[in-house]
Amino acid sequence: ISGIHRPAKLVIDQQAIFDNVQQAVKRLPADTVLWAVVKADGYGHGMLQVAQAAAAAGATGFCVALLDEALGLRQAGFDQPILVLGVTPANQVTLAAQQRISLAAPDAAWLQTAAATLQNSTAPLSVHLAFDTGMGRIGVQTVAEVQAAMALLRQAPFVFDGVFTHFSTADEADTTHFNQQVQQFKTLLAAVGQRPRYVHVANSATSLWHQACASNVVRFGVAMYGLNPSGDALPLPYPLKPALRIESELTFVKQVPAGAAISYGATYHAAQPEWIGTIPVGYADGWQRRLQGFHVLINGQACEIVGRICMDQLMVRLPEKLPAGTKVTLVGTDGDTAISLQDVASFAHTIHYEIACGLTMRLPRVYLPYQA
Amino acid sequence: ISGIHRPAKLVIDQQAIFDNVQQAVKRLPADTVLWAVVKADGYGHGMLQVAQAAAAAGATGFCVALLDEALGLRQAGFDQPILVLGVTPANQVTLAAQQRISLAAPDAAWLQTAAATLQNSTAPLSVHLAFDTGMGRIGVQTVAEVQAAMALLRQAPFVFDGVFTHFSTADEADTTHFNQQVQQFKTLLAAVGQRPRYVHVANSATSLWHQACASNVVRFGVAMYGLNPSGDALPLPYPLKPALRIESELTFVKQVPAGAAISYGATYHAAQPEWIGTIPVGYADGWQRRLQGFHVLINGQACEIVGRICMDQLMVRLPEKLPAGTKVTLVGTDGDTAISLQDVASFAHTIHYEIACGLTMRLPRVYLPYQA
Ligand SMILES: Cc1ncc(COP(=O)(O)O)c(CN[C@H](C)C(=O)O)c1O
Ligand SMILES: Cc1ncc(COP(=O)(O)O)c(CN[C@H](C)C(=O)O)c1O
């Protein structure tokens, strides 16, 4: 009796992901590789399906936020390097070592606890030392802290595989803070002594708009999904293909008299007799309540979301009577019009990253396969 | 290699759900039953675990939004009446009939298509006719529409099991619109002729603050999860027990110098040397970016979320140096202080329903069992 019967779906185009990765890989310097950032279930697009398309297009490794996500990749058979970008509790490092999963080390104290835990591990742990150059999240901040970490890192049970930092403003026109981070990165890198195999600094924005500073891995996230990291603040140097669209259909259509109230709180009243369509998507799918007043596309026309968005349904004002079953586009192209994730994010005063990650598992995923 | 290694969890207290349902059932008139509304994965609490506790406490049926959710309950072995509140595409009605799942009928046109689809069905379909009395979402609006629907409903392949409506303002102090809906409900009900087995109008708010109007099922949703349907606009007539808390721990603690920037966009700068803690929860878990500036609890103290909330992590300002591994409460009680889902919702300018439903599946669920 299982299977999906719901007339609403998130369609993910693996070809778009493949193409975006292939474009990016083509533009890399010869000694630089691309690791696909597939954390948060591939920014809501599906971790395994994204990883598959990205690997086929030339991604040679993966970045995730959590050990559990890395284990999910290994369990699915992905054999490439995997780096956990967040801080893994030091008592779980043995499992990472066994599965050849690289971990970010935030400081010497973490390395010390990890070393103690790894005492009886048969496998060494691959570590990338995190530099906090101005993101303020994780990592060592000073030369002294680098040196303390290195004293531990050059020994068993560790394999010192990388150093990295993360830029907090690489998607902004003002490069002041970015340049300060670059300088601090150079200072800290100099304290490492011999460079490890992987040195990396670039997220999507850095790879698109900045000269890489002596790094050899790009951690390619949001651009892989076809999204401009800056929203629409900075123009893309080459086009990206959005990988996601959201489609549904009208499940119910009715005419209401002038004055009729729509949805919770009776916040909307029909100005005249109006045709109202009901769509089976709501905030429990990640279609935020703040999107009241935004629109969907039906037959190439924008239809306003009227009244409060419900948990599982929302209502739109139709230009005319339309049959139940009529196709509705919440994100994507319909005729000459389109709604991008950025349009949704702008209306909701957030970033497209959050809209994508917020699409809950209740919304069925449908994958369009790629051709290599 | 599976299992959960992440130091962040949603703890769901099945006892609270049990107690809330038991309290509500005790207060029902003798001929009225309680159906637990477990759509949207039990408002983010876990559909099956909520259903289990609710049934043990006296819920005799379930309401869901989608056929797929109803099938999930049947597949898990729940044998009680189940009503799908949303509009099920009429071409899927045979599956519902086979599984003894009741469907909401929004109008006569839907019944007509359903009847055609059910021609070869061995099982009849149980139907609850929806009255749109002022919610503006689904259902028949006029006496003529009731009569058209009834002409179809009194015949095979349908079992006419219920009529219902939904109030859009039952959680508000102003009862004007509510009373209009009640009046319209009475008018439409009179057009039905013989009352079906189930007549229902009450969501949580209606059951808490209004006299039921000749109904015999309460569709008990948000109050079952221990939440006040009105936020904090109306006082509860009896206490409810919140069923959900969110806990994590500090994964990284550092001191930053005065002026140091925290997180994306460098929107926060330390006013003086400050201790900053990193917590492995972010907007991809449903902890919305709008919660920047809100707080978490550590050792009974509120610690402000500083800088933008990231996809997988957030930073807080600590009162002093604290060890990594220190417990963090995002929702729940810590010492003499507490953060409720309503506190979170107020800060984010939304309703607790949306916060609960937005907690994504990446956040591990831990269940505390109930005792009957
Ligand atoms: C350390 C690190 N590297 C690389 C990336 C990829 O970024 P992008 O998607 O912009 O290419 C991220 C993503 N971060 C998310 C967005 C966050 O922490 O909020 C990251 O945290
Ligand atoms: C038809 C119907 N009945 C009963 C309930 C339970 O409501 P409550 O949780 O307030 O007790 C709901 C929930 N509705 C959600 C909230 C919605 O449609 O947005 C509903 O749609």
From TrEMBL, chains A, B:
Keywords: Isomerase, Pyridoxal phosphate. The modification N6-(pyridoxal phosphate)lysine is found at K39. It catalyses: L-alanine = D-alanine. Pathway: Amino-acid biosynthesis; D-alanine biosynthesis; D-alanine from L-alanine: step 1/1. Substrate binds at R137, M311. It holds the Pfam family Ala_racemase_N. InterPro entries: Ala_racemase (IPR000821), Ala_racemase/Decarboxylase_C (IPR009006), Ala_racemase_C (IPR011079), Ala_racemase_N (IPR001608), Ala_racemase_pyridoxalP-BS (IPR020622), PLP-binding_barrel (IPR029066). Its EC number is 5.1.1.1. It comes from the Bacteria. GO terms for biological process: D-alanine biosynthetic process; peptidoglycan biosynthetic process. Catalyzes the interconversion of L-alanine and D-alanine. May also act on other amino acids. Belongs to the alanine racemase family. This is Alanine racemase.
